[in-house]
Write a structure and sequence with these properties.
The chain is 16% helix and 32% strand. The protein has 73 residues and is α+β, with helices and mostly antiparallel strands. A hairpin with a 7-residue loop joins strand 2 and strand 3.
Length: 73
């Protein structure tokens, strides 16, 4: 993640919301109180192999990170 022209920082994936058409990833840089950003990745914007790889990675995450939709928080 890059903020305000600064260098890149490592991020931690905090939560994933899934649908057949998109994945929304909640990312945070730093500790538990760090600013969080959400990024939505749309299926139609990705090559099929990249979409499958991203979905497989999301399925391997611990259950506490995975959420089916945003209304379940």
């Amino acid at each position: 993640m890059q903020r305000n022209g600064a260098g890149f920082e490592p991020v931690q994936l905090r939560q994933v919301w899934r649908s057949p058409w998109w994945l929304t990833l909640q990312l945070a840089a730093g500790g538990p109180d760090a600013l969080r950003s959400q990024v939505t990745v749309w299926r139609f914007g990705q090559p099929p192999q990249a979409w499958r790889a991203l979905r497989l990675c999301a399925n391997r995450l611990p259950q506490q990170v995975r959420v089916q939709n945003k209304d379940t928080q």
